[in-house]
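Final report, Chapter 2: Outcomes

The project's central promise was a pipeline that accepts a single protein chain and returns its three-dimensional structure in a standardized token representation, suitable for archiving and comparison. That pipeline is now operational. To close this chapter, we reproduce one record exactly as it appears in the project archive, with the input sequence first and the structure output second.
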Amino acid sequence: MRKGSAAAILAGLAVAVAACGNAPTTTQPTASESAPPAAGEKALQGVKLEVAAKWTGAEQKNFEQVLKAFSDKTGAEVTYASTGEDTGAYLGPRIQGKNPPDVAILPQPGLVQQYADQDALKPLTDAVTKEIDTNYTPYWKELGSADGKPYGVLIKAAHKSLVWYRAQAFDDAGVQPATTWDELVKASQTLADSGTAALSLCGASGWTLTDLFENVYLSSAGPENYDKLSKHEIPWTDPSVATALEKIGQIVGKKEFVAGGSSGALQTDFPSCVSEVYSTKKAAMVIEADFVAVEAVQSGAKVGEQAKYFPFPKVGDTAPVVLGGDVAVAMKDSPGAMALLQFLASKEGGEVWAKLPGYLSPNKNVSPDNYPDELTKQLGQTIVSAGDAVRYDMSDLAPSAFGGTDGKGEWKALQDFLRNPSDIKGAQTALEAEAKKAWK
């Protein structure tokens, strides 16, 4: 156990237990006032915790290794529940039934505000907040806060401005990684002419289409307009949105560019689209975040050899860097919940996870040397030293009804656009109607 960790966990326990009584206190108990565990017993021996997150498959297995490290350290017994893609639909009934998980991992910071407004979250203890202040920049702390009060820990970051490709497909067609959108369109044509679809689109998973839009929009419209659109301060009928959709249509509007055409794309989810690139070899590229690495490895490709990536090409003046992330929050006044959040916010917890594929840490004190390959090290450094033009995933900042619900809002409007990429005005009208409802 790291020096000082036991005392920190005990301090967190004392604060959390005091909070359970709902009575106002003027002083917080210190670690020395708490009864220490018996000899040979760990700080949370006998404590049971439930953690709910959206991850399945390889991502779930990796996260369970992190939870095991916490259990080994503290003695707590942790069970994992998968929320599926629609985290809000899973958590809503459990919150209403007063049976939420101890800790939930939210894929959208917008949900932090939503659940805080419902009094469904527990404010972070001083011990957890101190861990965040030590290891994170204020930007990441703010994303886990509501009305200036910290509720969540950004435990996992995603670099969403990447185009992954199968090296052999590029070599066979004589294609080079694109640096501009025009080069990407040209490369797509060359790949299609060589007999390989340029792109596998994960259209059945609507969030992947929002990622594509955000990169094109950030690059073509610029960071200032991106901020305005993310807050619905300009409408989705704005000409800047039309420009972005026109650019996207240059690729998704050509049947031979997309594996299975638009109808095939709408039946392909994530991670099946990654398998189409590296396993069945139906396509040469997939546009998605660093966590593609996990699925590429599952398909038998080695990252840096068969599975390579290049930065999302510039569409306009801005080289886009869009980040996503997952926020851990406590939904029960449970000492174990706060101890787990403290562990997830720590350098120690981040480094356990960083050694596994498909993970990037927003924790500035997690050394990139922990990452399993050179490409991930480079991405990790980008996350830590990101500049002012970096923006957080727009759909994840939006109300869940617009930016994070399967079959509704932005997801459905962009899926409908994929069916008919020539109807730009219709797509804009649908997006604006959905946005008005969500922001109302």
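Archive annotation: Residues 121 and 331 are 5 Å apart (CA to CA).
This record, like all others produced under the grant, will remain available to the consortium after the project formally closes.
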